[in-house]
Write a structure and sequence with these properties.
paralog of FGE (formylglycine-generating enzyme), three-stranded mixed beta sheet, 18 strands, four-stranded mixed beta sheet
């Protein structure tokens, strides 16, 4: 009988298992590849075009280049900051940052502090009267103001009627340039050309806010916009929707945070510093919401120069301890609390009209406006223009730009980290108490305000006549902006 050799079959089985293993491994690889392609985890293109065209986030390193207009101590301590620019980041304002500016970045975020406006529980809810994109004008209240916003508005101080010398002289500009150069700056006499000639101006009595508008006040305004179905992206402007302010959603340097329900602040220590990254439209809308307005350029200079008509709010010589500028004794490199620098107040009592932040005014800018006849009685600037007048200099500027006579101009739809604002009002406005509040409010022991009685009100749409008219161009003889030099890194 023949015996079957079973061991021979076992030896041949090893090759079979090897082949099976290879087939299974290849199949798994194919399955993984197909899965990656379906989920978008793997990109494949024979010519490489689709892969090359994929979007990527590129970090932009923005460094602060030392500027001859900056104080030496500021220029030596500048540090670069890095931002990853995404599709939602608005870099229009960043491109105009002064090279000597040190603005804190939001790297450490404590618990948010919500700025809650004073509530008026006994008032009926406002109703919106259709009228397009009207300003926040309220009928039936003193100054047409929103009571919750007016109750926390800045104190108004009186500025008496009278004549003053507006503008400057070639000799004064030359001396200011010499001082700027001695301080290490790079000023030129041409920077003062639009402030010539000096001329006598008469203004009627008016009221102006003692301090610049703060974040706590402006955030209350933004939260009011929410109740009216608007927001910071299009809630300001009269003829067309305009952005009011940059928030951290559009600009990483902004301290204002927004969510679907409300606005608040990212760092509590800035609540009483000037609100910045506010457009001219955002400043104008806020002032209207509290029944006030932006000051004219003449009113602003009258307030800054005082009865004595001085070159700086406190006198004719720059005092480094009186203002927050790049030439101050201890440059801060950022805006400070609006109540600081009491010794630098103007003759009428207004604070920080030199330095801290430059301030929007109501007027269109005209480089040759001072030389035009008929601009000496309550002047309000050209009827139209490209830019709006900015006054007062900022923490990032040399004292040359903080002189009460110096003029600067900026595009009204742009937002800057060194520009804020304050509001004004006509003297014939309803009576105000010592705290700048309407006469129908009272102060309790805790310092808060509560209404005595106010009528019902409704929000209506209005159009600002000053915002109408054609935009001037060089071809039509309109004024074109002249700006101090800045170095873009």
């Amino acid at each position: 009988m023949t015996r079957i050799d079973y061991n021979r079959r076992r030896r041949g089985g090893a090759w079979q298992w090897t082949i099976i293993g290879l087939l299974v491994g290849f199949g798994c690889a194919v399955v993984l590849l197909l899965t990656g392609l379906m989920l978008g985890l793997i990109q494949f293109s024979p010519d490489g075009v689709s892969i090359a065209s994929l979007p990527s986030q590129t970090p932009f390193v923005i460094t602060t280049t030392p500027d001859p207009n900056a104080a030496a101590s500021v220029a030596q301590t500048q540090t670069p900051f890095v931002m990853v620019v995404t599709a939602t980041l608005d870099t229009s304002a960043i491109s105009t940052l002064p090279p000597d500016m040190i603005f804190p970045t939001n790297t450490l975020m404590p618990a948010p502090v919500t700025a809650t406006p004073t509530t008026q529980s006994n008032l009926p809810a406002p109703t919106i009267t259709p009228g397009g994109i009207g300003d926040l004008t309220v009928t039936g209240l003193p100054n047409g103001a929103v009571p919750s916003l007016m109750s926390i508005a800045s104190q108004l101080i009186p500025v008496e009627t009278g004549q003053f010398q507006m503008g400057t002289t070639p000799a004064e500009v030359a001396e200011a340039v010499r001082q700027c150069i001695d301080q290490g700056g790079a000023c030129e006499t041409s920077y003062g050309d639009d402030s010539l000639p000096a001329h006598t101006v008469t203004v009627n009595a008016f009221l102006i806010e003692r301090t610049e508008v703060t974040y706590s006040q402006y955030i209350a305004f933004l939260n009011y916009l929410k109740t009216q179905g608007r927001d910071h992206t299009n809630g300001c402007g009269t003829t067309t929707p305009q952005r009011c302010v940059d928030t951290a959603r559009e600009n990483e340097l902004s301290y204002i945070r927004v969510d679907p329900a409300s606005y608040d602040i990212t760092l509590d220590f800035v609540l009483e510093t000037p609100a910045v990254f506010v457009s001219w439209y955002g400043a104008d809308a806020y002032c209207r919401a509290i029944g006030r307005r932006l000051p004219t350029e003449a009113e602003w200079e009258r307030t800054a120069r005082g009865i004595s008509n001085t070159l700086y709010p406190w006198g004719n010589d720059f005092i480094s301890t009186n203002a927050n500028t790049a030439g101050s004794e201890t440059p801060a490199g950022a805006p400070l609390d609006v109540s600081q620098f009491q010794t630098g107040s103007s003759g009428f009592g207004a604070l920080n009209m030199a330095g801290n932040v430059a301030e929007w005014t109501a007027d269109w800018y005209g480089a040759t406006y001072y030389g035009q006849a008929g601009s000496d009685q309550n002047p309000t600037g050209p009827l139209s223009g490209i830019n709006r007048v900015v006054r007062g200099g900022s923490f990032a500027d040399r004292p040359f730009f903080a002189r009460s006579v110096q003029r600067t101009d900026r595009a009204p739809d742009q937002r800057f980290p060194f520009v804020g604002f304050r509001c004004a009002s006509n003297e014939e406005s309803p009576s105000l108490d010592g705290a700048g509040l309407p006469s129908n409010t009272t102060t309790n022991t805790g310092g808060a305000t509560s209404p005595l009685s106010v009528p019902a009100f409704s929000v209506t749409g209005t159009v600002d006549p000053a915002s109408l008219g054609a935009i001037a161009t060089a071809d039509t003889g309109g004024a074109l902006p002249t700006l101090p030099p800045t170095q873009i890194p």
